[in-house]
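Notes from hallway chat w/ T.B., transcribed later so I don't forget. T.B. wanted the structure written out for a chain they're using in a teaching module, and asked if we could keep both sequence and structure tokens in one place. Agreed to drop them here.
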Amino acid sequence: MRTVTYRARAYKLRAWRAQYAIAQSIDIRILVCDKEWQLLRESLLGTWARHHDSNVLRLRAFIEGSPAPPILGLPCPTRTRIVYNYITGTWFRVRMRGSTFDVGSYPALYQLLTDIRALVAGEEAVIS
């Protein structure tokens, strides 16, 4: 089995971040037109209070389940941006707990958010 060097991991992460930068440059209204995302988003409506852990698993599966081949084993940058936009958006925060939403009270959701932020910041995070 071949070991992956630090240089190879750094290259992989730089390549992913370049793809994420492209995804950031695209208008979010265009990105969210993905039919699979629309079906998932619709199915999540009204289920967060009771099924937040399974919803987070579904969001992770969406990020990893891109029809395009993964970029060097990392999750799809476009889908990562869609999910990040969804869980940090005003509508989501207001719908979850009114104006006092605290993502820390939902550990699985907080971990997903932390993983995405670490990946975007250039740290090697696992989105699984």
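Follow-up for T.B.: Residues 4 and 10 are 10 Å apart (CA to CA). Might be a good example for the class.
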